[in-house]
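Dear support,

Our group has been running a series of protein-ligand predictions, and this particular one with flavin-adenine dinucleotide is the one our PI (initials K.S.) wants archived with full inputs and outputs. We had some confusion internally about which version of the output was final, so please treat the block below as the authoritative record. The input we submitted was:
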Amino acid sequence: MSVIAIPEELLQLRESVTSFLEREVRPVEDKYAHELGRSGTIDRDAQLRERRALRRKSAEVGFYAMHMPEDVGGMGVGTLGVALVREAVTASGMLLAERGGVVPDVEGPTSVLLNLDDEQRRRYLEPLMAAEKETCFALSEPGAGSDATQITTRAVRDGDDYVINGRKHFITHGQYADFVQLFAVTSDADGNDLGISFFIVDADTPGLTVTSTQETLGEDHPAELLFEDVRIPASQLVGEPGQGFRYAMGWINGGRINIAAQALGKTQYLFDRMHEYAQQREAFGRPIGNYQFVQQHVVDSFLELRMTRNLVYEAADAVSRDDNARQMAAAAKITATETVGRVADRAIQVFGGNGVMTEMGLERLYRDVRAMRLYEGTSEILRGTIAKTLGLS
Ligand SMILES: Cc1cc2nc3c(=O)[nH]c(=O)nc-3n(C[C@H](O)[C@H](O)[C@H](O)COP(=O)(O)OP(=O)(O)OC[C@H]3O[C@@H](n4cnc5c(N)ncnc54)[C@H](O)[C@@H]3O)c2cc1C
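Confirmed final output from the archive:
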């Protein structure tokens, strides 16, 4: 399968998750077969409700927090194991398995939250790992995306509190979160700038409003959050003031591998669909897969799938050993997210007119995978990262 030797226990873990997908997720997904067949998707509220129920089941068997260390109640599964599982989840093609249905998206626990102290862990991390609470990660702002160091949301120390003002946008799950992981520029009581700090803000804190849901090309619908004189106790600060950006970046390589693995699984799913269709669909008295121009779509996708898989596994292994992790995570994320875009395009071409019909479920993927080249580092920013590691800038 890959140049990386995958330990037997990780293959078994993937097998257990695949069984969970078939046993728990498939029957729920099948309830929506009619709706999926008509629109290619499932009503947004139903998606939210079903995923909540599924993620609780996943948490009960330990899958939901598998990537968290054992001392906080996780399974301590490393980056390679998590990548294998994420690939299997999206390769299933089940919409409800994605976005926190089985393993966490941004609504769930990440290693950034290991910076929480004991009391914060009890109030926020433990219920998150049990899938009893949900969160969101609020860094981006209208004026600061790729260059996130330029955020202007400000937390000013006032006695035993911080008072927060600012606006966050593109915040995935922002409208559903019980608490916000907020990154804000901090000033002490004398007005001295301390840099970016990390805070936990309960969603029901007065002054915090979800001002809009932002509609996109795909299934994402992030939120805009407004902070107007939001007063929180200083105990909601995580770790040291001014260290927030460092805490956020501590997660970045793992996050990029997660996206790469999800893109890889979707590529596998799309390849399987086009491969099958090329053998079944007939034109001019023969299966379309007999025609060389159609073969090129299938074979090129096969080649890119194999190359991407090797790179994603190699990068996941590198990240788990912290060996050239930044370069490898960037390489995997660029390659997998660009590959899935090309393969989705080819899948539609192989399906002909059926490819753009919502009932086939391919056009949804074609639209949905586009944003993967934007979040967790755009392809341009990541190329810059690799250029730096090559000593070019
Ligand atoms: C669906 C979706 C969900 C998201 N969810 C979250 C979330 O949950 N939390 C959160 O905090 N953020 C989230 N984001 C925001 C995401 O992280 C940003 O969109 C991303 O960092 C890019 O920032 P930007 O959109 O402001 O683009 P810009 O930074 O304005 O970039 C515009 C273009 O310029 C290019 N560019 C910028 N700087 C350079 C450079 N130095 N070299 C070369 N090219 C450059 C970019 O690659 C891009 O092509 C989400 C975004 C999307 C689309």
